[in-house]
Design a protein that fits this description.
The protein is an alpha/beta fold and about 160 residues long. The protein folds into 2 domains: about 50 residues, no CATH class; about 90 residues, D-Maltodextrin-Binding Protein, domain 2, CATH 3.40.190. It contains 6 helices and 5 strands, in the order ααααβααββββ. Strands 2-1-3-5-4 form a 5-stranded mixed sheet, covered by helices on one side. The longest helix is centred in the first third of the chain and has 24 residues. The two termini are about 45 Å apart.
Amino acid sequence: MSYKTSWLVVHLATPLAFLSSFFAGKEVFENKNFKLTYLIGLSATIIVSLHVTYFDFNNVVDQPLIYVQTQWGALEMADRIKELLGEGNKVAVFAVDGHYWPLPWMLRHEAEKYPNSLLFTNSCPQGYDYVFVVYRDHGCLQGYEIVGKYELRKWWEFYEMKKL
C-alpha cells in the first residue's frame, strides 16, 4: 500500500470484523480461550489507540500510523501571516509543487479579508513584502533575506523571507 491513510484500511477491516463476529456462532463466544484472547486484543487496541491519539500524536518519526501530520509550525506560520497581513504587508506563500496545504484552509478568512495582499502560488511571486517559501524554491527570489523558519510537516520546512 503506497499510503498509510485510514480510509484505505478501515473500510476493509471494520465490516469484516462485524461480519466475522456475527457469523462466528454462540459456541465461539462461550469459549474461555476466546474470551481471554478477546480481552487481550481489546486491551491492546485501546492502549495503542489512546497512546497514538492523545500522547504521541505528533511523533512522525516513530509512529508509522501518522503519515502527513501537520506540525505545530504550520499554526505558528499561519499566525505570523495573519500578523503580517494585519500590519498591511503583502504576503505570498510559494512552493513550486504546490505543497502548502493546509495553509489555504487555515487562512481562508484572511484571503477574503485581504484579497489583494495574500497569494498562494506555485510560480515565483514578485512584489511581495514577505514570501514564505520552501528552501529549494527560493532561488528565484532576489532581494530577500531569511528571517524565520517554520516546519509545515516533518522534513518540509518553509522559510519566511523579507524584502530588503
